[in-house]
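So, who can interpret the following?
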Amino acid sequence: MSCAGQDVDLGDFRVCLYRAATDNDRGGASGSSYMSRWHKAGLDNLRQEDVQLEVTGSSEEEVGIRAQWRLRPEVIASEVANAETAGVGEMGGAHWFAEGDKTIPVHAPGAEDNPRSTLVEIAYCVSRDGAVSVQATVDTSRTLVELHPKTHLKPSLARVGLAFSIPDEFRGLEWCGLGPHECYPDRKFAGEVGWYESEAQNMHENYIYPQEGGSRASVRWVGLSDSDRKKQIVAFPGSSRGTGVQSSMPQCAVCETFEAVNVSVYSLQNIDAASHCKDLSRSQGRVFVHLDHRHMGVGGDDSWSPSVHDEYLIAPGCHKFSTVLMFRVARAGTGGLRPGYGEECGPAERTRMPASP
């Protein structure tokens, strides 16, 4: 993205359907856990294929670009071993959400040999002021391995949204949404809507076993700035204002939200591969951002079975969402960019998050 003659690169910009497995995601024996089923579907290792690009329109104010591709797993499901997990039998527990009839296999006969793919179509609108409107359609109807028709299990993706990385000079974080602590779709009643400030390195939750964590739910606006507030990357859900984004304020801030936003100095792959906090590395020199249209709940009725409630699952299907990304640069001679999205709705009070211990 560009603004005032300066550029910033959004590395590995992609649609993301996977998260680093939580302890609860690992619950479920014999391949029934969410993590095991995500691995069988190859969500942790998707590649882009059949990429098509075309310019759909051009004027002095904006340029439209349409992109389409398929996401396919690197290997077929039958070649992926069941992930090591803990189920009711191993834990010795029992629960009304427990794993049901163990004589019924997880997947339908022959399903693990069937090809799977996710169709992605994105319409980009790049405005003269550097704002980029992203309208995405993600068809996940053939993403997961088909479950056995008699199983009690429910299919669910981990997330549906956009992911990218930015240079780690953009460490200053502010958001309008739920906080101050981490919040998830089924763990957010204690969160309060407000304006919050923090640093990217303070958003990571140091669980004993590295896993998904640190997200904030129902986010209306998020910005990442350099230390002097001379440059800022802004994102909010919704579409741009007509033929050009003239403000960094979303068109419908009160009703459109990201279901979850995650900002971390560690990549998803790094967290997913780590067994201990000492295994995490910041060597990439990047900040990693997830803007989720949907994010599966974390569950927790028990930790030995896939027990996320139905209303917090993400069923396969066609998901449509819009996001605006902006790169802002302070004018010469000014003290830097002001917090928030603009004078018309700047916050009266802001909460500064404490540094991580």
Notes: The radius of gyration is 21 Å. Residues 160 and 340 are 26 Å apart (CA to CA). Residues 34-40 form the longest helix (7 residues). The chain has three helices and 17 strands.
